[in-house]
Amino acid sequence: MSSQWAVATKVVELALKERFTIARESWVSSHNVFVTVRWGDAAGSGEVAPADRWDETVPSVVADIHAARLDELAGPFDLEGLSLLLPPGAARCALDIALHDLAASLAGVSVAEMLGIGGRVLPPTSVTVPIADAGAMQDRARSLADHPVLKMKVGFDGDVDAVGAVREVYTGALRLDANEGWGPDEAAGRLKALEPFGIELCEQPIKAGQHEVLRRLTEATAIPLFADEDVADSADVARLAGVIDGVNLKLRKAGGIRATVAAIATARALGMKVMLGCDLESGIAATAEANVAALADYADLDGPLLLRSDPWPGVSYDRGIMTLPPGPGLGFAGAPV
Asked: What is the topology classification, in CATH, of domain 5-108?
């Protein structure tokens, strides 16, 4: 690698405030990869939470980051060139975030300003209600009653009753996420039963790869359906044209900011709504996502709010309202590595 470039990584275990359970798995902590990319005296920071669901591991992501030949880039502003070095996914995402932080810092502007969306109002973020017993889910919703949007995890026996219990104490916008937890026939019945609760949208009701079934479900329910596990990048968005109402895009899945912006543009061209989602992550990844959020209809960027302690706080939260930190790049004064 050219002496101009230097890359360092660090794996950090981020403890959660409480167990986080979705339809297919559960976490008490998240092992995230932090990266610092240096160009001369300038540095940029990135972060990613590798996902087993996408056949990623922490060691494989770290290895892929260090194998990337950044010396093949034309320089720190060759943000498009990274797509020639790595496929979509977590490793490219971490480097892409760091390179955007680096380039924007060198330019003396925020990442949002570099993207041409500086100063735009950000959509409020949802805060997640993970799977638990109905009483515990209702209690969490009650504690978040002053937040404008909640996202409730479903895809388990008794989920319709749990949604009903939450609706007894929460009147704001309510989104659902089944995380592939229903079978096709089961999904049709659950969605019909959930319609009276005023659901804003429901993510990924069935296992990915069943587009024709997903199309039929979309046509049959009044609840807008969004793809998550079925979509990573622009090519996936295009394959979902006419199948779904919207897509939940994540920097990790697409391969960073650059690819996510392209996927958003593809969704817009095809008449789809866009949610920008997150993983269990610190303020570095969440701040990168928040810099893109103005391009989305909906935001689900509550990762740092689920942590016991955020080692790198960035974007701030006030009852779902996000505020980007001041300063160039992502707004961090130091590097995590």
From this structure: Enolase-like; domain 1 (3.30.390)
